[in-house]
Specification:
- The chain has 15 helices and 24 strands.
- A hairpin with a 5-residue loop joins strand 9 (138-143) and strand 10.
- The strands form six sheets. Strands 1, 2, 8, 9, 10, 13, 19 and 20 form an eight-stranded mixed β-sheet that branches. The chain has a seven-stranded mixed β-sheet with strand order 6-5-15-16-17-14-18. Strands 3-7-4 form a three-stranded antiparallel β-sheet, with no helix packed on it.
- It is of the alpha+beta class and 552 residues long.
- It is globular.
- The chain binds flavin-adenine dinucleotide and iron/sulfur cluster.
- Residues 14-20, 39-42, 48-55, 114, 137-138, 183-185, 188-190, 212, 214, 258, 260, 300, 302, 322-324, 328, 333-337, 339, 540 line the site of flavin-adenine dinucleotide.
Length: 552
């Protein structure tokens, strides 16, 4: 391979989400002379961002205090009605708002598309002189002689499936920085490398995740209630599976409908996609979509380990920010505010370091300050909600979680201390022989859909003749181990139908083959987390590939 060209910056940021863009904006606002570059694997800023989103404005208020009066800012709908329900198959029991801890209230929050917010932040960053390169995936961390991070490399473009250069091949670039901020969102691929290399998680609990699936609908006027925010838990998830739904009304008759299943589920025949489809048939939910049109679909994991799963956030030459660091308040299903706040906090510490003439060392001041900041306070209060839910199941777990949030809020203490999460999500599946297989109804293509027609609405596109970005450490594992033991759960947990078992003889189920339809991948990262053999590694494909979410 020819040598890569390299360019030197003060700060290199990987990922143009709220965390990366907040860091870039804050750096430039503090010192316009600091050179800042942001690389983004999506074809445009926001193309890979999928979120609810009900946004706590604390981050935007600090980053760009005038955002409410900016006509270009896409956040226009304020929360008007805030509802919680527990669902059984046929009933919906409301939870009174007075019983909910104050921190769970959504009043004062705004509803909108986080992808659109990122595009708006991107324009602001560029106006301040930040260089943003969409369509470029960061594929490698670059190291100096002392093992410190000195930059990143973007991926080569134009390799064929075997990794050989095709006509039009372009070598990746080296972007060198005095500091590198990793803002890749949940389960970032470079962040994973940094965590492993510097053992950043040696003192923390395993990170936990949920898979979030989302559809965007335009509903009829009769079913639209601007500012309505509704969360549910319970049906259709069976005993032992935790998760829930969100439904947000905003904009021009838009309804953002989502479903989160925690990835610590045990039954390998569970399909989060089909649970989501079934959820829509609930009597309280289905009516909203009568006469409406589904306009987008996608999926993305959400970090849920919170306070006790956050790794050390700094390493020589850089730091983790936003969901790369797992800074989500899972009880509130909110992380965008902490993404912005952590980007700002890291930027302030980088500015101080640069002003002192430092480079490529550890940003101890960032690590030492986030737990005592608004980010830490937000996560600390809800630290036991997920472990309680996992240990005690739905009703008792939710009840105890609510009690714990109240005691944290009122007395700044918990009778539980800080509970552990236990196993990583890859280790929770039971063998298929020990579970009752879940059978899902067929979609009706009006309210419920199959995976292919859903993936179509994510506008996912990858160059087909390129190295497969879903790497198997051992190609024999899916058929030799996972199929007999777990029924190969990748077929079911992947929300895009990327993984299939194809039989040489369908009738006798002889000659099974594991097929990877990598071009359908929506970059949710579930397979990198849930594979029981930890055998699948998600690496960035050619920049620009993946979903092209309109406003998710
Ligand atoms: C289903 C769901 C619902 C949610 N609902 C809410 C909600 O209602 N309110 C709320 O506040 N939060 C919500 N969240 C959480 C919120 O979306 C995240 O906290 C937030 O997006 C984190 O911002 P971030 O900048 O850290 O990462 P992201 O928003 O994920 O942005 C990361 C960016 O980095 C890019 N990237 C990643 N790797 C690379 C690479 N190697 N090279 C180049 N680019 C790269 C990605 O393409 C992406 O654009 C939800 C999340 C999910 C999944
Ligand atoms: S292949 Fe993996 S990352 Fe891609 S959509 Fe499927 S589960 Fe998600």
């Amino acid at each position: 391979m020819p040598a890569r060209e390299s360019t030197q910056y003060d700060v290199v940021i990987v990922g143009a989400g709220p965390a990366g863009l907040a860091a870039a904006i804050r750096l430039k606002s503090l010192d316009p002379e600091i050179s800042v570059v942001v690389v983004e694997k999506g074809s445009t800023v926001g193309a890979h961002i999928l979120s609810g989103a009900v946004i706590d404005p604390i981050g935007l208020d600090r980053l760009t205090p005038e955002w409410r009066s900016d006509s270009e800012c896409p956040l226009k709908t304020q929360v008007a009605i805030d509802q919680f329900y527990y669902l059984t198959e046929t009933r919906a029991a409301p939870l009174p708002n007075w019983a909910m801890p104050r921190l769970m209230s959504n009043h004062g929050n705004f509803i909108g598309s986080l992808g659109a917010v990122a595009r708006w932040l991107g324009a602001r960053a560029e106006a301040l002189g930040v260089e943003i390169y969409p369509g470029f995936a960061a594929t490698e961390l670059l190291y100096g002689d002392e093992g410190e991070v000195i930059g990143i490399a973007t991926g080569d473009m134009g390799l064929d499936r075997e990794g050989r250069p095709k006509p039009g091949f372009t070598r990746g670039m080296e972007l060198l920085g005095k500091y590198v901020l990793l803002a890749e969102g949940a389960r970032g691929s470079l962040s994973k490398q940094a965590v492993a290399r510097y053992r950043l998680d040696s003192a923390s609990e395993p990170q936990k995740y949920g898979i979030g699936l989302k559809e965007l609908w335009q509903v009829s006027e009769d079913h639209f209630s601007p500012g309505l925010v509704r969360h549910t838990f319970g049906w259709p998830l069976s005993k032992g599976v935790s998760g829930g739904s969100f439904l947000y009304h905003y904009g021009d008759r838009l309804v953002s409908l989502g479903f989160v299943a925690h990835l610590n589920y045990e039954n390998p025949t569970l399909s989060p996609f089909d649970e989501f489809q079934r959820f829509k048939t609930h009597p309280m939910i289905r009516g909203t979509f009568a006469g409406g049109k589904r306009i987008a679909y996608g999926a993305r994991v959400i970090a849920s380990g919170g306070w006790q799963s956050a790794p050390k956030l700094v390493f020589p030459g850089g730091a983790l920010i936003g969901c790369s660091a797992g800074l989500v308040n899972f009880a509130r299903i909110k992380g965008s505010h902490n993404a912005i706040l952590s980007g700002m906090l890291a930027a302030e510490k980088v500015r101080d370091a640069l002003a002192a003439g430092r480079a490529n060392d550890e940003l101890h001041a960032y690590e030492n300050s986030w737990r005592g900041s608004d980010i830490g306070r937000d996560l600390y209060k809800v630290r036991n909600v997920k472990p309680l839910w996992s240990r005690f199941g739905l009703l008792l777990g939710v009840g105890l979680g609510g009690f714990d949030m109240w005691t944290n809020e009122l007395f700044k203490a918990s009778i539980f201390g800080t509970l552990k999460h236990g196993k990583p999500d890859s280790d929770t599946l039971k063998p298929i022989s020990e579970v009752v297989p879940i059978v899902y109804p067929k979609p009706d293509s009006v309210l419920t859909f199959d995976k292919p027609s859903s993936v179509y609405l994510s506008n996912t596109n990858h160059e087909e003749d390129q190295p497969i970005h879903l790497r198997l450490h051992d190609p024999g594992v899916p058929i030799r181990d996972n199929l007999p033991r777990f029924g190969e759960p990748a077929r079911l947990y992947c929300p895009a139908g990327v993984y299939e078992i194809v039989y040489g003889n369908e009738a006798s189920r002889a000659d099974p083959r594991f097929v990877i339809n990598a071009q359908n991948c929506v970059h949710c990262k579930t397979c990198d987390i849930k594979d029981p053999a930890k055998n699948i590694e998600w690496v960035p494909p050619e920049g620009g590939g993946g979903p092209n979410y309109p406003d998710m």
